Amino acid sequence: MQLEDDALIPDPEMWRKFGVSPMTGWRWTNDPKLNFPQPIKIRTRNFRRGGELNEFGERLLREAIKQRAEKQKGGAA
User: Fold this and answer.
1) How is residue 7 annotated by DSSP?
2) Residue 77's pLDDT is what?
3) Which is nearest to 46 in space by CA: 17, 5, 9?
4) What is the DSSP letter of 2?
5) Contacts of 25 (CB under 8 A, 6+ apart)
6) How far is CA 49 from CA 4, 25, 67, 74, in A?
7) Which mean pLDDT values do the consecutive 10-residue runs of the chain (77 residues) have?
8) Fewer CB within 10 Å, N- or C-terminus of the chain?
């Protein structure tokens, strides 16, 4: 998923792109350890910057690959 860096993505569209429920999105937003991009509120709607979402997705992917490699390394020993 690659979004334009300066695009403002509404939360419902963003949840679909990440394949998560709105409740999971709320948890991500409120988990300081996850460092999920914070919303930009325009009237009553939340938006996120495309570039920040790209960085978040790439970081999740790198962490998952690292965890998988460590798990396989530990199982091979």
Assistant:
1) P
2) 52
3) 9
4) -
5) 11, 14, 15, 18
6) 8, 15, 27, 38
7) 87 94 96 95 96 94 92 73
8) C
Residue 3 contacts by C-beta under 8 Å, 6 or more apart in sequence? Answer: 9, 17, 50, 51, 53, 54
Query: 10: which strand partners?
Result: 47
Q: Which two tokens stand for residue 28?
A: 């991500």
Question: Locate tokens 């979402």: which residue?
Answer: 53
pTM: 0.81
Cβ neighbours for 9, distance < 8 A, ≥ 6 positions apart: 3, 17, 47, 48, 49, 50, 53
